[in-house]
Specification:
This protein is of the alpha+beta class. Helices cover 43% and strands 23% of the residues. It contains 3 helices and 7 strands.
Length: 155
């Protein structure tokens, strides 16, 4: 499963929005210069640079994501970008919705380790992901051969 934050604007739309905002800011700076404020264009240029940098940082933060791979042996969570990975044994992992502030947290836990997944999702999406993971893990571990084999000694 690929988890990515929702984006309401495409990259092309972002570039158009930044262009429109910078155009308005620079126009106001030029109009201010015509009215006697010689520093207005300098401040407008500084504000435009700050605007472009801050919107770029926000856009890049939207590129973060998580890839969750579930099989009969393990549950692997890979954090993107960066490719950091955390693995849990699928037979022992617990999927929990824990109370938190300002929203409930979806946690994977096993052997004393906990990992929050989908923190950037809205509440309904986290609940849906929790149910989907629980159902998937039940199906995978239901048909897994018995982990403990009995010992039959010689009689």
């Amino acid at each position: 499963m690929w988890l990515r934050p929702n984006r309401s604007l495409s990259y092309r739309g972002l570039k158009c929005w930044i262009g429109a905002l910078v155009g308005v800011v620079l126009t106001v700076g030029v109009l201010g210069a015509h009215q006697g404020n010689v520093f207005a264009p300098v401040f407008a240029l500084a504000e435009s640079v700050a605007l472009v940098v801050s919107l770029g940082v926000v856009w890049r933060s939207g590129e973060r994501g998580q890839r969750i791979t579930v099989d009969t042996r393990q549950v692997e969570v890979e954090f993107l970008p960066g490719h950091a990975r955390t693995c849990f044994q699928s037979y022992w992992v617990r999927v929990q919705m824990l109370p938190g502030h300002p929203h409930r947290r979806l946690m994977l836990a096993s052997h004393g380790r906990e990992l929050e997944v989908g923190a950037f999702l809205v509440e309904d999406e986290r609940t849906e992901l929790s149910n989907k993971l629980k159902n998937l893990l039940v199906e995978l571990t239901r048909y897994q051969p018995n982990q403990v084999q009995s010992f039959q000694g010689a009689r």
